[in-house]
Each structure stands twice: as structure tokens, then as C-alpha cells.
Amino acid sequence: DISKYCKADVFSQIGKKTPCAVRFSTVGGESGSADTARDPRGFAVKMYTEEGNWDCVGNNTPIFFIRDPLHFPNFIHTQKRNPKTHLKDPTMFWDFLTLRQETAHQVSFLFSDRGTPDGYRYMNGYGSHTFKMVNKDGEAVYCKFHYKTDQGIKNLLPEEAEKLAGKNPEYAIQDLYNEIEKGNFPSWTWSIQVMTFEQAEKCSFNPFDLTKVWPHADYPLIPVGKMVLDRNPKNYF
């Protein structure tokens, strides 16, 4: 029960069920590219609430490469193909990372085992950004969203990920679709971290810095509910 933090109808009572959809994706690849590549995974959540649709952007990492949104266009271009050659350009990619020191946290995450998750069911999701919640009395707090996989974390070895990229580039999509069709519904435990305005003012780091996490010892996870994917879309488009 987080109604003391948020007045949104979706959180109004214990046991309330709200339809939702999750969009999984890679970041660097275009549609049809291998989904086992070493790459962050998109984890965007849409809640079909009684007050309207609520879209929450997210990734499978609690942090991101940059803290200043002005750098996002330049960064995302380094993730895509070189416009001159139409080829992936690792020099362009690494030039950006080495010139922006705040990328180190996300790069460390990306080049760990979690950079190649074993499909979409075995990875966590995060809202990443810092959000604000307001309760019925108009009192506000800052928060972060966490979606912890109930299937457990499972990753691919680099050799496995590379092999699957050639043999079955839709490995993650296929796994998710087939398991849902079988009735093996994947689920995630949704939790939040809460920081008061007073805590934010005294915080030793910038709580809005997307390259940093909030320590769980200081801002523990508060369970919100379960997110269960129990059916596939009828039309992919």
C-alpha cells in the first residue's frame, strides 16, 4: 500500500488489478536486428488506468550513459549506423564514451554479464529516472521504480550470445512469446524507492543524476505489486 505517497487510482487499494503492457527492445539495433547483442534493453511500461493511460519509460539498467539530456542526440547517434558508410562504427561509439566520464557506470554494467541477458524474462526493469509522487493531501516525495524479475537473473555467455545472433536473431522475442502462449506467464515484482524533499536537499549526491543509483540501505525498496504478462498482443503493429 503506497497510497500515503501517491493518490493515483492505480495505487488506490491493495489487490487492485490494472491492465498493462510492456515493450521490450534493444537500443543500438533497428527492428529485425539480433536481440542477443550486447546492448541495454528497453523496458517501457504502459498502464491502462481508470484515469487514463500512463506510460513509463525504462531500461534493464538502473542508470544511463549520460546525466545531461542535451547530450542525448549525440549519444544516440553513436549507437546507430555511421551515415556515411551505413555500418556500425565502434570508433564513434568509444569516442563518445571515453570523452564523457559519467558513462563509466553504465559501461561497467553493459560489459558485465548483464549486458547479454538470456531473453527478456530473466532481466530486471527500472524506471531509471527520478519521479515525483503526490498524495491526496498534496504532499510530494521523489521516487524510483524497480521491476525485479521473479524468474531470477540469467545471462548468456558472450559466445552463446554471438552464436544466437547468427542462428536465431529473434531468440528473446521467440522465448517470450512462446512461454506466454504455453501459460508460463513471466512476472516482475514492482517496488519503489522513496526520498523526501528534505532528504534530497541533504543528499551527498544529486538524486536526479541518471548515472547514479540510490543506495538501498538509505532508501529501501517498498513493494508495490506484481506485473504479470499473461497474454501476447493480437497484432504486433
UniProtKB/TrEMBL annotation:
InterPro entries: Catalase, Catalase_core, Catalase_sf. GO terms for cellular component: mitochondrion; peroxisome. GO terms for biological process: hydrogen peroxide catabolic process; response to hydrogen peroxide. Pfam families: Catalase (PF00199). SUPFAM superfamilies: Heme-dependent catalase-like. It comes from the Eukaryota. Keywords: Heme, Iron, Metal-binding, Oxidoreductase, Peroxidase. Residues 1-237 form the Catalase core domain. One of its GO terms (molecular function) is catalase activity. SMART domains: Catalase (SM01060). The keyword Heme applies. Belongs to the catalase family. This is Catalase. It comes from Clathria prolifera (Red beard sponge).
